[in-house]
Amino acid sequence: MKLSVISLFFLAIFLRTSSLIQGVDFEDGPPENEYPNNEYEEIATLEPEDAESNVTLQNDEIFKGNESIHVELPETTTESNIRRSFGNGKAKSPELDPDECGDPPAVTHAKVTSERQAKYRENAKVTYNCEFGFIVAGPMQFSECLRSEETEELYWTDPGNLCAPRSCGDPGLVSNAHRLGFVFTFPNKVSYECDDGYKLRGFGSRYCQASGTWSGSLPTCEPVFCNPPSDPKNGKVSYSSLKFGSELRYECDPGFNLKEGKGRICSENGTWVGEEPICKEAQCEPPVAPEFGSVQVLGNGVASMALYKCEDNFVLVGSATSRCLDIGVWTFPTPKCLEPCSVPKVAHGKIGRYVGSYGRNKFQELPEGAKTENNEKLYLTCESKYEPFGTTMMEEEITCNLGEWSRIPRCEPAKCRGPPPPTDNADMRSVNRTHKGGVVYLCKGYFKKTKFGNVTCSFGTWKGDTPVCKDTKCYLEKLSFTGLETKGLKNVYYRNQVFTATCKSGYNATKENNRITCVEGEWKGHLPPCLA
C-alpha cells in the first residue's frame, strides 16, 4: 500500500501515547508566526520499502506532555521526516474525515468487544463488555455512529455508565468484635477487631473479589484466659474464673497477715498484672497509750496482752485489757481516759443526788465543781416559781456520759399549767402558757368588747383583768311605758334598728316624736306618753 498523507496523519496520532497531540501540520515546516521560539529535533524517518509496503518507523519515541509532532512531506521524495517540537507554540489540530466518527467512546471498567475497524462510518456499531469484577448496570451496552439532523455531523451515541462494581453481599459479623468498613463491593475490604479480653483467631481482613465472593472465611474472637496462679508462701489463692478481668483473692494461713500488694487481675494479653501479696508472720502494731493514761504490754507477738491505766481523777472508758489476735489486730481499740464530770452552776436551781437506805428519800445537794463518776445520775431541782428547762417535770435527771452531761441543766420561769380566767360572752382564741405569755379573747356573736383586758402568765400564775363583752341587742320587754302597745311585736331589735311606738286602745298619743333606735344594746330617743 502506498504512503499517503492520511497514513502519515494516523501514524502521528499513534506516536502520541502519553499526551494529547497539540497539532499536526503537513506544510513545509511550521509557520514562524504560529510557532515562535520553537526548536526542532529530528527523531525518526519514515521510508516505504516499496510501493505495496506499509509505513515503518525506524526509531521508537515516546512523547511527553506539552509536546507536539511535525511531519514534513516533500513532494519529490517518498521519505518523510518526523520532528519533535519544544516550547509553548501550538500546532493546528487535524480535521477528521466528515464521513468518520473516530474512535468509539471509552467506558470506565469496560472494553469494546466488537472487531476494531480502521474507520468507523455512519451506522457503525460497537458493543461493550464489563471488566472482570464489574457487572452491567445500565440499559445500553453499545454505542452507534449516527449523523446529527441539525449539524449533519457524525457522533457516537452515549453508552452511559454501563459497569458497576460487583457486590459480595454482607460479609457477616463476628461475636465479641467490631467490624471496620461498610462498602461491600469489589475491590473493597472489611476488617475485624476483637473487643478487649478477646483475641483474633484467623485472618482479620476479608476482600471482596472480582468473582463476587469474599476471600477467606470469618475469623473468631476467643476469650483471653490467664494461666492458673500458684499459691503464695504461707497462704492460698482463690478465683472464680481465669478469664480477662478476673481478680485473684489471697488468704494467709493462721498466724500470717497479708502485706504489700493489692491483688492481681487477668489482663487483656493473658497475663496476671499487679503485685502479688506476701504473707508475713502476724504481728500486732504496738499499742498506743491513751491521753492522760498509760499502757503495759505483757508478752510478744500473737496472744500478747496490753494493760491500760488512767491517771488519778480520770475515768477509763473502754476495755482496760486487749489481746493480740493471730490476724495481727488487737481485740479492743485503745480506751479513753476522761476527766469526771463536774457539777455545773445552775441559776435558780441546785444539783444533787438522793441518798438513803431506800433510794430517793433524801436529796443531797452537791457543790459547784464536785466530781462525779462516769454514768452517774444526778438530779436538778429548781427554786419556787421556776422549773427545769424543756420538761414538764418538777425535776430533771442528768447523766455523766464520757465526761459530758447528757443535758445542760437549766432552770426557767415556770409555765402556767392551769386554765386562764374566763370571761362572759367571749371565747379564748390563743393561749401562751410560757412566762410573760398572754391570752387572746374574742367576743361572741352580737357582743361587743367594751373593756379591753390583759391576762398574762407570770411565773406559773395567770394575772390581769379579762375583757368585758356587752350585748349589742335591744329588747322591747325592757321598755316600761304605760299604755304602750307591744302585743304582736318582736321582742329583739339589733344595732341601728328603729321601733315605732303606738298606744293601746283607750290611750291617746301626744303629737311628739314616737320613734326610738337600738344603739349598742340600749334604746336611744324619747317616747311620748300615752294619755288615758
TrEMBL record:
<feature type="domain" description="Sushi">
    <location>
        <begin position="166"/>
        <end position="223"/>
    </location>
</feature>
<keyword id="KW-0325">Glycoprotein</keyword>
<keyword id="KW-1015">Disulfide bond</keyword>
<dbReference type="InterPro" id="IPR000436">
    <property type="entry name" value="Sushi_SCR_CCP_dom"/>
</dbReference>
<feature type="domain" description="Sushi">
    <location>
        <begin position="99"/>
        <end position="165"/>
    </location>
</feature>
<dbReference type="InterPro" id="IPR035976">
    <property type="entry name" value="Sushi/SCR/CCP_sf"/>
</dbReference>
<feature type="domain" description="Sushi">
    <location>
        <begin position="472"/>
        <end position="532"/>
    </location>
</feature>
<feature type="signal peptide">
    <location>
        <begin position="1"/>
        <end position="23"/>
    </location>
</feature>
<keyword id="KW-0732">Signal</keyword>
<feature type="domain" description="Sushi">
    <location>
        <begin position="224"/>
        <end position="281"/>
    </location>
</feature>
<keyword id="KW-0768">Sushi</keyword>
<dbReference type="Pfam" id="PF00084">
    <property type="entry name" value="Sushi"/>
</dbReference>
<feature type="disulfide bond">
    <location>
        <begin position="252"/>
        <end position="279"/>
    </location>
</feature>
<feature type="disulfide bond">
    <location>
        <begin position="310"/>
        <end position="337"/>
    </location>
</feature>
<feature type="disulfide bond">
    <location>
        <begin position="503"/>
        <end position="530"/>
    </location>
</feature>
<feature type="domain" description="Sushi">
    <location>
        <begin position="282"/>
        <end position="339"/>
    </location>
</feature>
<keyword id="KW-0677">Repeat</keyword>
<protein>
    <submittedName>
        <fullName>CUB and sushi domain-containing protein 1</fullName>
    </submittedName>
</protein>
<feature type="disulfide bond">
    <location>
        <begin position="194"/>
        <end position="221"/>
    </location>
</feature>
<feature type="region of interest" description="Disordered">
    <location>
        <begin position="76"/>
        <end position="104"/>
    </location>
</feature>
